[in-house]
Design a protein that fits this description.
about 35% strand; single chain; alpha+beta; OB fold (Dihydrolipoamide Acetyltransferase, E2P); 4-stranded antiparallel β-sheet
Amino acid sequence: MFKMNEIRELVRLIDETSVTELNVEAAGTKLVIKKELGVAAPVAVQSAAVQAPAVVQAAPAPAAPAAAAPAEPAKAEEKGKVAPEEDPTLHKIVSPMVGTFYAAPAPGAEPYVRVGSKVNEKTVVCIVEAMKLMNEIEADVRGEIAAVLVENGQLVEYGQPLFLVKPE
């Protein structure tokens, strides 16, 4: 049987390469991972005892996040704490996949980072849930969080900016 961390690592590796499909069999369990539209998603995990293959197709993400995006800069300007997304001096932390953005490790917990938080290359800034897998997103740059561009629980697209960081 595959462990969850092994599956996460395989999904991450597929997401970072040009490979579009991976089939792995081990100890009577078969794992199939297919990448569609630049997103790696586990498609089927099947035990040797299962006769018919179970295949789940990943549905394209709804267009709702794009429609919601224009309202967010207005909220950010009202707070006066968020730097403009067009500022070339700021580093964008983008979503590596389509999924649901979570600012904290659990409901009711403190967010990983806030505006003004200091981060380094390995600092976890959020979670993006894709296909029931919780993917920790790291800052990939040293600096200070200048803006949080998405709301907790919001659907995010591949490549969508999540945070702006003022690099050190």
